[in-house]
Amino acid sequence: MRVVVTGATGRLGRALVAALSDAPFTGPLGPLAWTRADLDLDAPDPGPLMKRDRPEVVIHAAAWTDVDGCARDPAAARQRNGVATGLLAEACAAGGVDLLVVSTNEVFDGARTDGRGYRPSDPTGPVNPYGASKLEGEERARTAFAGVGRDVAVGPQLGIVRTAWLYGPPGHDFPSKILAAADRARVAGEPLRAVADEIGSPTYAADVAEAIVELVGSGDIAGTHHVVNAGIASRADWARELLRQADLAVAIEEVAADTWPRASTPPRWAVLDPTPLPGGEPLRPWQAALADYLPSLLRQRAAVG
Q: Does 130 qualify as catalytic in the annotation?
């Protein structure tokens, strides 16, 4: 099976390339990796790429994920996450190619208070330009595939995978920032301040990649899938568990999200209700995934320090 990964050098993209390289259905050459040099979201032209590489499945992981940058430049966010996704979807639908679009919890408003994670069928309502641009990408993809007859055996199929609070190599993520902030707090003799009123499911990119490989391998990617590690935590809970696993004795002071003004307004409730994967097994708890990531984080910290 010829599988393309867009955004192949990004956090999820590189995890997908690694996971697909071990998947038997991609063959000895593994997946095809499209970088920004191939598919520039500011000026996408997927037609020639489709003719060149003749994919059977495209996993669209490329996106502008700088949520504050999106808030400062909503037009660029719309182009990169909305328009570009729509153009890719049109090319896939016209060519009979399956498409799996990676999206986000931020298509929801995060205002619910019933303690339940968002399901795929729940009404969307993004509260920031990043979420709005990703929702536009979903909607443009659905429109592109709406007029195409779907047969599970031959495609084309459209799948959407929403995830949340993604972290993993190459760093510059929440865990790496917390470790750096903890070091600064310890030197200053101060507690580490961490947000207590944003709740979500910390999710390891490698685990999302494996789940997507499972979906693609099943031959049925159609529909909207919520893929996150099990369990929920506040940002402060996440930081506390990270410091515990790293054996760093730094006190945490819980603060409100508005302690640090930002260009973007993140959803306060970022919890997705996971949808079943083909194999029936949910993703592991977020604490176990964090433990797998920790050794590489500590190596990076030692190299910098």
A: yes
